[in-house]
Design a protein that fits this description.
Blueprint (H helix, E strand, L loop, with lengths): L1 H33 L4 H4 L2 E5 L7 H12 L3 E7 L3 E7 L6 H7 L7 E3 L3 E7 L3 H15 L13 E2 L7 H8 L13 E14 L3 E7 L7 E5 L11 E13 L2 E12 L11 E6 L2 E8 L4 E6 L4 E4 L5 E5 L6 E4 L5 H12 L6
Parallel strand pairs: 1-2, 6-7, 9-11
Antiparallel strand pairs: 2-3, 3-5, 4-5, 7-8, 7-10, 8-9, 10-11, 12-13, 13-14, 14-15, 15-16, 16-17
Helix pairs in contact: 1-3
């Protein structure tokens, strides 16, 4: 009886949290669009309102990063002219370094590369915006500011098996440097689609292989309903248990028109060099190759250039000669694993 009572209390609290997240997210979007905040030119998004619950604004910050593709600093103004906030970043932006850069304006702050928390007097808010804008312009190019889906591998529905799921599950725990793998499948037919729950989208999909159709869920995708009849999809593989039956389900993280062609080679991979693990990615739009070691340092190099930048971010990065060891072997290995043929 006590367990049931506690479970019901937890469920009520969770429902209230979901309602608050949805409400604050909608209010934040309305505020951003209504005030015409210049987040593209600022290269960072700062949103502060007086009545938001500080316990859920971090979740909302993550959703705004997904929507706008820029670092987000969100906060609530409390009594006594005090602001408490949360921050979420993108790959090229170090949240903790940004907070350190603005520390003279802050009270308490902390965090890591991808997320952080902070407080400050409300009178410092405008200077805080300017300081974050200055930091963002030092480490972010305009081309970085877009929602991106990083694909790990192409798959067909015939590949989606419990054996694959078990192999993926053994790679836990997920986090920075070990993100949940994302697959993509082209030319997928949308057999069925409908809105379920609170604005979620459930679909039945069929690809070109001879495998059976797959069930997919797209959280909070109600505004995009209906999707086109044929799409390319990016997704995570998840296990779903309902009414005592367990099946694999696709969790959509992105879709696009199938007319768009993929760039040659994967956008991101990893490799080992001298017993150390490295992650690398190639961004053809810049173009730029980035190689990150297991200590968080990044080597950024533009093809054809004799030098590159080495550091945790562009603010403290130093120029290095990439034609010398160890940088030249690292670049060669990275290009090989990415399937790129770039001039060193």
């Amino acid at each position: 009886g006590i367990a049931l009572e506690r479970a019901m209390q937890c469920e009520q609290v969770n429902q209230r949290r979901q309602e608050l997240c949805e409400q604050i997210e909608q209010e934040a979007i309305a505020y951003i669009e209504g005030e015409k905040i210049s987040w593209e030119s600022d290269r960072v998004l700062v949103v502060i309102q007086p009545h938001w619950h500080h316990g859920v604004i971090g979740i909302v910050a993550s959703r705004l990063v997904e929507k706008y593709g820029v670092p987000v600093f969100i906060g609530t103004e409390e009594e006594g002219g005090h602001i408490r906030g949360s921050a979420r970043g993108i790959e090229e932006f170090n949240v903790f370094s940004a907070l350190v850069y603005c520390q003279d304006l802050l009270g308490k702050f902390g965090g890591h590369r991808a997320a952080g928390g902070f407080s400050l007097p409300a009178k410092n808010l405008e200077k805080f915006r300017q300081c974050l804008r200055e930091f963002a312009h030092q480490c972010l190019l305009p081309d970085y500011l877009k929602p991106l889906i990083k694909i790990d591998a192409q798959a067909t529905f015939a590949d989606v098996t419990f054996d694959l799921w078990e192999q993926i599950d053994q790679l836990q725990p997920w986090g920075i440097g070990n993100e949940f793998p994302i697959f993509w499948t082209p030319q997928v037919q949308v057999l069925q689609q409908r809105i379920i729950g609170k604005n979620h989208l459930k679909l039945e999909l069929k690809d070109s292989s001879r495998a059976a159709s797959q069930t997919a869920i797209a959280w909070r995708w109600g505004p995009y309903y209906p999707l086109p009849s044929v799409i390319d999809i990016a997704y995570k593989l998840k296990e779903n248990t309902f009414n005592g039956q367990t099946q694999l389900q696709l969790e959509l993280v992105g879709v696009r028109s199938p007319e768009i062609s993929l760039p040659v080679g994967p956008s991101k991979t990893q490799f080992t060099y001298q017993n150390r693990l490295y992650q690398c990615s190639y961004h053809p739009q810049q173009p730029e190759l980035r190689i990150q070691n297991d200590r968080g340092k990044i080597l950024a190099w533009q093809p054809g250039q004799p030098t590159g930048l080495l550091g945790e971010n562009r603010v403290n990065a130093q120029t290095v000669d990439v034609t010398q060891t160890p940088y030249q072997p690292l670049i060669t290995l990275a290009m090989t694993h990415l399937g790129q043929n770039l001039p060193v």
